Amino acid sequence: MSSSTDFVLAVEDLTVSFDGFKAIDSLNLYVDKNELRVIIGPNGAGKTTLLDLICGKTRASEGSIKFKNEEMTVLPEFARVRRGIGRKFQTPSIYENLSVFQNLEVSFPRGRSVVGAMFFKCTDDVKERVDGVAREIGLIEMLGMEAGLLSHGQKQWLEIGMLLMQEPELLMLDEPIAGMSVRERELTAELLKRISNNRSVIVIEHDMEFVKKIAHKVTVMHQGKILAEGSMDKVQNDPAVIEVYLGH
Ligand code: ADP
Ligand code: MG
């Protein structure tokens, strides 16, 4: 169990109880380098809780979360961010009054000292990173625009960009296309595929058309456990999965 692996993320026997209720129940999950994994499952299955445990927002009751073979369960959230775990929450948390450029700029990692951040100068390194990220998220033409004026989808991309500024090796997104237009969904699918060219990505999503487009592998969760895992075709035809979805 304690052996070293090639997985970016290895979750083993993970359990979390809320007042005796196991929201995550002895769960195992392995994610490869540069893999784009989609997690699906009915409401209350424990999907968001699983991401909370991986990023350190919630503490595990039992089990192990290894990121690049290092145990994460003992580390606080900020230390996991520094190791390379990025997490996008459902509600975007951009600075509406700042420009797109400034939103990306303030997300450049520069240590946690307040003084360091205050005297921080916008160097060429940072500008280069901002440009690269803005290009990747399709907002290069909008660097000067106030973030509050962006469309809903563009705000979501900006938040993804703010995470990319930290160059995470694992990026986790919870229902990223909720509220997006059809076109924005298409562009987001392309964006996520691009992003996973050189990092691992975990996406929670309901929209099956979207899942089909992006997933390398799909994990189906139910009642805090994994019900099925594999290709989209495989899990869609799995009788246990069909039953859970029809039962709802
Ligand atoms: P999903 O994202 O798959 O819809 P969640 O992870 O949000 O599911 O929730 C899984 C279960 O855990 C739900 O029954 C939810 O009510 C419960 N739960 C989640 N967080 C807490 C918490 N902080 N305290 C108590 N119960 C929680
Ligand atoms: Mg959820």
Give a topology summary:
Layout: E1 9-18, E2 21-31, E3 36-40, H1 47-55, E4 62-67, E5 70-71, H2 77-83, E6 85-88, H3 100-105, H4 114-118, H5 124-136, H6 152-164, E7 170-174, H7 182-195, E8 200-204, H8 208-214, E9 217-222, E10 225-230, H9 232-236, H10 239-247
The protein binds adenosine-5'-diphosphate (ADP) and magnesium ion.
N to C succession of SSEs: EEEHEEHEHHHHEHEHEEHH
SS-derived structural category: alpha/beta
Distance between the termini: 36 Å
CATH fold call of the domain at 1-84 and 200-248: Rossmann fold
Mean pLDDT metric: 92
**Spans of 5+ residues with little confidence (pLDDT < 50)?**
none
CATH superfamily descriptor of the domain at 1-84 and 200-248:
P-loop containing nucleotide triphosphate hydrolases
> Percent range for helical residues?
25-40%
Q: What oligomeric arrangement do these chains adopt?
A: single chain
Number of helices: 10
Radius of gyration: 18 Å
DSSP strand content? 15-25%
**Largest beta sheet: strand ordering:** 6-7-8-3-9-10
Outline type: globular
Bound molecules: adenosine-5'-diphosphate, magnesium ion
